[in-house]
Design brief:
Blueprint: E1 2-7, H1 12-21, H2 23-26, E2 30-34, H3 35-45, E3 50-52, H4 56-68, E4 74-78, H5 89-97, E5 102-103, H6 106-118, H7 123-128
Parallel strand pairs: 1-2, 1-4, 2-3, 4-5
Length: 129
Amino acid sequence: MNIVLLADNRKTDLLANFCVAYRKILGKHTLISALNTGKIIKNSSGLEVTSLPTEIRGTIEQLASRALYNEIDAVIFLRDPERMDPAPNSLLRACDINTIPFATNIATAEILVLAIDRGDLEWRELIRS
């Protein structure tokens, strides 16, 4: 599965710790992130992350495009409720169009990763074929 990992600035450490906790599950999948977030995840957890070398808005638009073509299977974007930037709306919309799960907080991220581990999202593989 292709899993996107993103976080607002104040949630980056939380995402890195999440990746450490779920390293065994996440390590079985292709992980995609923004450049700086990808480096932080790789340094803290040892996971291989494909990083998109653009600023966050460019990354969001690239990921939205990939979601429209069903090249993404799940998104974890830990958002800061104090910030709530409208930037990820294009990604969220693309995920809604193609029924791609989108977790925005640590509780839904955990549910999503555990569902992936159980095989609950294997139907996504059929869509990409």
